[in-house]
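for the writeup, i need someone to sanity check this before i put it in the appendix. the sequnce is what the collaborator sent (i think, or maybe the updated version? ugh). structure was predicted straight from it, no edits. if anything looks off just tell me and ill rerun, i have time this weekend
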Amino acid sequence: MLPTPSTTHVDTNCIYEPAEDSFLLLDTLSSTSETQFLKQRFNSNRSIDTDDRLNSPSPLILEVGTGSGVVLAFITAHAETLFGRPDVLTLGADINPFACQATEETIRRACKERAGVGKEYGACLGVMNSDLATAVRPGMVDMLVFNPPYVPTSPLTWDYESDLDRTSLNLDSSNQKNLEDSRLLSLSYAGGIDGMEVADRLLEQIPSLLTKDRGVAYILLCRQNKPDDVMRRVRTWGLNMSAETVKQSGKTSGWEKLQVIRIWCT
């Protein structure tokens, strides 16, 4: 079993703490079936004898909504094990600026630990403070990972920046910080109607974000997100896109049952 990156430095008052969903993603990516899939997908054009990487560019892995950084750090630190090659580039994006900072530190610590035992690891290009993947150029992402805010809530109608400014005018500094922390944390779990308002926005971007020849995405959903409907929708996109469930949590009732779906270009 691959070691999980430490997140003891993360301020969980305003940043999503690693939980069952985070660990399900780690288990998925490190499973035998998925490492075989990824190794084949990202090494198919390389010469076995010469290790010619010119014919197979370094994969670019994007995680949207990094939170604590545990998933992106895991991918970066264990790139060689997961992809069969260490020359993997990773990139993160989160709307929470504190999550961006925490993710960079989580990655730094995980890679330092790998270096300490003489292991190779990938290279993180940085973590962007952005709304989903809006800052990423189309057609550049080889693998996308997204653990969206999937909890069904009332419709998402407020704008974080303006709403925070209006409601904090008459608060002292301590209460203002508590409000800001609460709002930032809610961005990591509040999914709106059916828990899909944020996920649907990213799903719309996937066909243009992924590279056409080897693009793949891993999306985590809960039961109330109607994952079967999501996969049917993906298959109607055309563009030779496929989708299937590759991992599920052990729970069998309620919206808490989680699953990871893989979307890929065939």
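The two ends are 30 Å apart (CA to CA). Strands lie at 60-64, 89-94, 123-129, 143-146, 216-222, 241-248, 258-265.
thx in advance!!
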